[in-house]
Amino acid sequence: MAMPPGTVFAGFRIERTLGSGGMGTVYLARHPRLPRSVALKVLDAAAGADPEFRARFAREADIAVRLDHPHVVEIYDRGAEDERLWISMRYVAGPDAARLIREHGRLPARRAVGLVAQAAAGLDAAHRRGLLHRDVKPANLLVAADDDGGDHVFVADFGIARSRDDAVRLTGAGALPATLGYVAPEQIDGREPDHRSDLYSLGVTLYQMLTGALPFTGTTPAELLRAHLLEPPPPVTRRAPDLPRALDDVLATALAKDPAERYPDCRALAVAAAAALADHPPGPEAAGPEQNSARADRPHQPSPHRAGPARHAPAAARATVRPLPDGSSAAAPDNHRTAHPPGRPAAVWWGAGVAVAGVLAVALVLAFGRTATTVPGSAVAGPTTSPPPVTSGIATTTVATNPAWGRTGELAALLPGLIPDTPAATGYQGARCTPLDVLDNGRAPALECVQDNGIHFYAWSFRPGDPRRDETFRTAVADDTTREEVWQRDSGTGRVRWTHYAGGDTGLLTVTFDDPARAWIVLDVSWDHHTGRDLYDHWWATAPL
Prior knowledge:
The protein is an alpha+beta fold.
């Protein structure tokens, strides 16, 4: 039985159910201390009652956490609560490739190859570390938006990954972990699987993206397995005549029955598929990641909680298959950190374009100019009669910076008095600050600061459209201690929210800004053994913002 929203499990606050399967349920959950939501997989109690399974689960989680790659979902932690095993991982706000196929039937060829190329990069990275996924399929390819609104793929569910050396022992006799439509022949007939088994499954995935159908079917599981073992894959062009015939050869190689006849690695498959499309005219362009998702967390219409503009790359940019770099360390395009100069913080990356700035100005009025809201128990927020003014400064391309802080220089310059002038100096209430380069905000510029009185705060910047900006502002708890109000000072306006996390006896406070230069900054403040009201009185009241 799924846990309802608001349940606290292993310190995580359940926000909603993301999905469920035969062995457990995945929830969107709020981390009790850090400013992020996570995907929390909780296994059924029956699984946790088996000592052998518990040992295998712990082993597999430890294997998965070794992966650190931009195209693999990051594993954060694992544990057990009331005999139920759990694992927390990065939450990816976007659809999976299976959903895109269901919604569109088939994907434009260049988009399909681009998705597979990124997945190939993550899989090859795992294979170089001796890890197999063993369940590659569209449902395990999560599609988020990169800096420019293009696709960014994360390979998910490495919680069932096996070390090549431990494959037989971990899997157990008779177990067949892969979904039958994507399973490699050697996983069926008892041969030892290796990285080429994942390549086969990735080839099936590409075939389905290109045609909207699986290459092998059957009315019973036995018929389907027999097809994998004995039947050649139908040519792609038989089901999609508009595609180049060169793709038939690419898929035939990827889906060869003998692993030795397949490509040597996943990157080689992606390179061959891209080459097959080199002279193929672009077809009708599919929607970008934001348009393809009908999920509540990525709505078609602008959400009142999203202050950024909709991000859609130009059609030509989305349709182009980017060249795959040579070398084993980078197997697919990784443009999510190259679209902007590394020294420019996310809070102002969008400021270079007048048109984009104008859209953002309207979005800010809609998102933050509404009536002040309260949460249960709130007694401090009052109505706002008009939206805060939006100035024309967003059109400027001149941005102040503090060179002493390097790539976080512009972020530091936007918070004078709060952040010290140099890393060696102290800021507000003796704060000593350190730059961060973490996944919590997509590796956009960030600062972590610790004050002499024990108050700890982060200054996060987020790229426009990143839903983690709003998730961070909501804080980890919403109960009768939570308050939220509009603030107004000489420097501008915004919102402040504070609460008390009883589980850790910690006061929490978050701040957002309305002015365009700082609209994508969130301050996240905590104080152990104090309340949110303590933070409001002793930190927020005099904070130099």
